[in-house]
Amino acid sequence: MKRILTLLMGCLMTLSIARADTVTLSFVGDCSIGERVESAELPGNYTLTLAEKGYEWPFSLVRDCLEADDFTFANNEVVFTARKNHLDKRTNLKGPGENAQAYLYSGIDAVNTANNHAMDFYLEGYDDTLTALDTYGINHFGTLYPDTNRERDYLGIYDVGDLRIGVMGFSYPQDSDIDRISMRAQALRGAGCALVIVSLHWGREVSDTPENWQFSYARKVIDAGADVLWGHGPHILQQVQFYQGKPIFYSTGNFTFGSMSAVDPDTGIFQLRYEVTEGTPQLVNFTVIPCRTQGHADFRPYPLTDADERRKLLTKLIYRRWVDGMQNLPASFADTGSVDLQNGFLPQE
């Protein structure tokens, strides 16, 4: 059975789903099921679209893909709140708590809540978000206060068959967070997690390549105990690399987003398939399902079917420069969207 646990300073909650000898994990990017404060009354915004078309609408074109795997992660980048008092900043993202119901019809199993919009409506708004997710049974994780006792430090633990997965989320990580990531990775290992995922909201917005510091930081995160680094934040796709056989997704783009219609709509479903032997995973395949998302009055991502469009999107994920210690995806990935690993490592070209 797949048991889902959320760890908050030692407190556990559980639930059960299905068993598998191979485990496929999916990762998608930013999900902002709401709109900018200034757009709250504008026709065609996300909340009004949900009211018109129903909570099943946003993920209706990709739900089958996300339900066909064993577990799906997404980044929740909106505050679910009715509050009006917000930060004095350019963009504050908001949706009513009822919008969280869209996740019930998505195939998404858990969401990260640690990102640069989490506190748009202050700590009270963040707590409203967690309350909304809890109300509808949406699993969540994320660390906003890693060095305090403010009890908003959630680690997720999820059992899929014989594989126990641990996950943490950090926003705009600093050098000092490496020790905190390491400490949480050790805690997850101590709780029996054979696979540790680190979610990072990071990088320069709308940049199609990682910044130089991110390469070294990614290596440190893997060395600190991560088996997967799943990144988001730039709102567009960035390249994928592997370090010591561990995948690094620098940015998985926007997946469904209520306030960025003008941004590159290319996105995807990033999938890792593991073979699990007596609870020990070995990565055997990496696949991306190329998708495109939509803006105003629609907001639905959908899988690409045109061969040329698929190839253009997949090419964006292949880094062309050599980076010390890193492996880039092979050129053939642009045609196949998939690569098999050999003994847990990318094959050499």
Total domain modules:
1
Q: Architecture, CATH level 2? A: 4-Layer Sandwich
Q: Which range does the strand content fall in? A: 25-35%
Low-confidence stretches: 1-19
Give me the CATH fold name. Answer: Purple Acid Phosphatase, chain A, domain 2
Give the name of the CATH superfamily: Metallo-dependent phosphatases
Helix content: 10-25%
Topology, number of strands: 20
| Count of DSSP-assigned helices | 7
Mean pLDDT: 93
- Biggest sheet: strands, sense, closure? 17 strands, mixed
Order of helices and strands: EEEHHEEEEHEEEHEHEEEEEEEHEHE
Q: What structural category do the secondary elements indicate?
A: alpha/beta
> How far apart are the termini?
39 Å
Coarse morphology = globular
CATH class: Alpha Beta
Radius of gyration (Å): 19 Å
Can you describe what's shown?
The chain has 349 residues and is of the alpha/beta class. The chain has one domain (4-340): Metallo-dependent phosphatases (Purple Acid Phosphatase, chain A, domain 2, 4-Layer Sandwich). The chain is built from seven helices and 20 strands. It has helices at 46-53, 63-67, 122-135, 177-190, 212-223, 307-315, 333-336; strands at 4-8, 22-32, 35-36, 71-76, 79-80, 93-95, 110-112, 139-143, 153-160, 163-171, 195-201, 228-232, 240-243, 246-249, 254-257, 266-277, 280-292, 302-303, 326-328, 338-340. The strands form two sheets. It has a 17-stranded mixed sheet that branches. The longest helix is centred in the middle third of the chain and has 14 residues, at 122-135. Residues 1-19 have low confidence and may be disordered.
